[in-house]
Amino acid sequence: MLEQSLLELAVATCFSSSALASKLKSTLCPSGPSTGLPNMKRFQDDCHKLLEGALEADHPRRFRRNDIASALQLTWPHHMILGSEGHIMPFLDQLFARLFVENGDVIHYRDDKVQDYVRLSARIDPALLVAWRLAQRIGETPTLAAHDLVRLVSAQQPFFGPATVAGRAKAENHAHIGGAYQAGMALMAGLLPGAPAPASEGTYESEIDFSSLIYLARALLREGDLTERAHADGGDTKALDRRIRNAIRCSLGMQSSTDAPSNLSWEWLTGQVQTVRADNPRWLRQQIARSMVELDIGQAWLWFLIWLWTHYLDPHCHPRLRMAIFFLFNGLMCARRDLVMDGQGLSRFIEYYHRKRRKTQAGFAHVSAAKTLFQGIDDVAELKVGSNVLTPTAIGDWLGHLARATGVIAPTGLRQLSARDAQRYRDMMDRWHFCVHFSRSKSMLHNPAMVWESAASIQEFKHSKGEWDRPSMLGGMSDGEEMLQLVPSRWLRGLDVAGDENQTKTEIYAPALRWLRDGLKSKDEGEPATDGLHLSVHAGEDYAHPVSGMRHVDETVQFCEMRSGDRLGHALALGISVRAWASAHGDMILPVDEHLDNLVWVWHYASVMSARLPLASQVLPLFERRIHIMLQFVPWAHGACMELPGSAAAPCQSAARVNSITPALLFRAWQLRRNCSFQLIEYENRGKILDRKIVIAVPDIALFSAHPAATAADGLEVANAVGLYRQRWKWLAKQVGGKVPPESGCSATSPPLRRVRIRCELNDHERWDAKADLESRSGLIEDTISAQELDFIEALQDWLLDVYDEKGLVIEANPTSNVYVARMNRHAEHPIFRWYPPDESWLEPGNRFNRFGLRRGPIRVCVNTDDAGITPTTLRTEFALLRAAALEHGVTRTNAEAWLSRLREFGHEEFRRKHRAVWVRRLAGR
Fold first, then answer.
1. Could you read off the pLDDT of 716-740 as tens digits, one per residue?
2. Domain check: are 506 and 598 in the same one?
C-alpha cells in the first residue's frame, strides 16, 4: 500500500472522514427544534477534534499529535464553511498547483509529481480538485463562454493524464473489464433513474448511509440553483434558507424515508434551461443531464462536481448550503473509500471487487471502462472476462458501448454505413480480444465438476455459429463485401485462472486448461484455420510465505504445461526481496501441509541446483530434517500409509511408517497433482474407457492403473507416490465447508491439522527443540528460517527466472495493483526492476540482481493496469510511475524513457502476436 505524507493525509481526512460527515449531518439536521446555525468557534473546535482523532485512528502512533494539529490548521482553517470567507480554501489552490498543470485545454497531473498524485488519489477523487479549478475559472476574467467550458470538460483525459501522442499506442495485456471503471462512476450511478440507494456495506460508511447522500444530491439537483435570490425569492434570505432546510430535511432528516426526493428524469432536464452561460447553475445541471443521457458517466461526474463547487464558491452562498455541499463531498469520498483498495492481500482485493455499489448498469460501466482502456486512437487491449460474457448478446452490447466510448458510428440495421464508417467500425472490432478466466472459488474446490462445466461452455463458444447475424456484428458490411466472414471465436484468445490462489490452487484448473488447448481437432468444412489459445494465469500474487508464492508459480508452469508465449500474471513472488518482505511481514503463519509442500519443493530445487551453487548443498540437510519433522503433523500422510503396498500393519504403526516416506517420494507425489482426480474417478467408474479427455486430464493414467500391483523397486516408489496422491485427495474432499475431516481411518494416531508459525532468525541461532514441540502437542508448531535459507530462496528466484525465460514465458506486471495488494510502499520496490531492469549491467554476475551468477539476462515483461478503477490508474499513468521509480533507482531520465519505450513496444507486439483478425476471407466457392 502506498505510503502517504502527513499533509496528504490531512487533506484526505478532511474530505473523507466519516466522523466529520456525521458531525456535519447532525449540524444540518439537529435533533431539537433549533433552526439556527451553530456557534462558529465551537463548531470549528469540534471539527478539529474529530479530524485529529480520525487521522490518528487511521494511522496510529505514526505522527506526533502536535504535527497532526498543525497540518489540520492548514487544511481546515478557522473560517471553513461558516465564516465570511468560507468559500476560500487556499490549501486546495496550493494542492492543485503542486499536482496539476494546465496544458492548453487539458488539465493533467505533473509528470514529476505523479507519485504524489497517485498517493492522493488513493483517498480522494482527483476529479474533486479539477472540478474546483474549473469552477474557479468560470468566475475569472477573461470569462469563459458556455461552449468554452464544454470544450474544456470534453478535453480531459481519463484519470486526468496527459493527452495521447500519435504513434505511441499502448497495449493493455491484463485488464479486467469489471474493475476498469473509476470509483466516481459507481457513485454517480446512484443518481440513475430507478437506481436504488443501496444499504451500507463497507468499512468507512457505517456512520453515513449512502442513501442519504443520493437523496441530498437529488434534492439539490431538483432545485437547480439554490444561490439565485432576486429571481426566485425576491432577495428574501429567510425564504432561501427555508428552501435549503426543506431540501436537507427531506434528504437527511427523520422524514427522509417518506419525503425522499424521487428519481430525476435526465431526458426532461436536458431541455430545462433558459440562459446559456458558463456560470449559470441551471445550464451546468443541463450538461450533467446530457452526459447521463449519452451514457458518458465520467463527464457527468465531472459536471456534477463543477456544479456543486460553483454553488460553494458563490460569495452569496448560504452557509447552510455550503455545509450541505461539503457534507456531500465528504460523504461521497467516504463512500469512495469502500470502492478503492485499501489494505493488503487478495482476499481483501476480492472483497472490494465485489462491492455491490460497483455493480452499476453495464452500459455506464462499459463505456467508462472503454474510455479508460482505449484512451489513444490506436490503443489495443486483451480483456479478462468470465465465460458469461461469451454470448452474442453480451458481445454485441460491448461493441455498442465501445463504439460510443471511442467515437465510432455503430451500425443499427436501419441504414447502411458509409464505406469509411464501416471500415472504422470493423477496425474497432479488431482492437481487442478476450482472455476468459476461471474464478477460483470454494465451490469449485469441492465440486470439480463445475470446472469442467465451465470448460465445456468455453469450448462451445469456440465452435458456435448461430445468432451472430445482428447489426452490431456485421460491421456495416455491404452486399459487395460478401467474401468477408466474421469468426466470433477469434475474439477468444487466452485462458486464465483468477482469484485467491491461497484458497483454490491451480491444480484444480490445470487439467481443464490443457484440454481446452488441445489441438488438431475436427471442424466443419469451410472453417478457417486457427491457432491455439495462450495462457495468462494469475500466480504468485499473494502469499503467506514467499516460497508458497514461488511454488504456486511453478505449479502453474508445470501443471498447465506452459509453453513459449504464455504469460504469468503478477508473479510477484519471483521478484520481491525476500529479506525485506520477511522483515516487514514478521511471523509467517500457514497450514502445516502447505509448509510441508514448500519444504519438499525447495528441497527438490536445492538438489537440482547443488551442482552449480554450494549454498544449495548447505541447506539440503536443513530441509530434509524439517520435512521429516513436519510430516508427523500432516493427516493425509498418516492415512496414506494405510494404502501403501504391504501396509497391512495396524493403525498404531502408521506414525512409524511415516518416517519411511522420503522427500523424493513426496516430490513425486507433488508432481502427480497435475492429474485430475475427478476425471480419474469418472474413468474408473465408467469401466476404464479411455478417451481423449482422460488422456489429457490424467496424463499419468498408466501409473494409476498399475497401483498397487507394482513390485519392482522403481514401481514401488511410483505406487507409493500414487498412494500419497490418492490419500491427500480423499482428505481434501472431506473438507467441505472448511471443516477438518476425520483422519481417513487413522484417527487413533493421526494428529489434527495444525498451523506453523515461521520466524526469521537472521543470526542463525539454534532452531527450536523439535522433540519438545512434538511432546507438547500444541496447536501451533514453531519453526524458523535462517539467513542462509533466505539467501537460497533468493537464489532460487534467480534460477526460476532464468528457466522460465528459456521456456519463452512472459511476466505481466501490474505496478499500481501490485503495490496496493502486496507489501510495498512505493513503486520503486516493484520487482519489474529485477525482472527487466532499465540498466542491464545490474544483471551482470555478482551485481545487484544477479548475486549468485545464475541469470543470463532479463525476462520479458509487459506492463498493464489489472483493475484501473479499484487501484486508480491508467496504462499511461503506470508508465509515468515506472519512470519516476526508475529515477529513484538512479537511472537518468533519457535511459528511463528508452527503457519504457522498449516495454511499450514489447507490450504492443505481444498483443499482436496473440491477436487474430475476426474478419477473414471466405474460401473460394463457399
1. 556 689 989 998 988 888 776 444 4
2. no
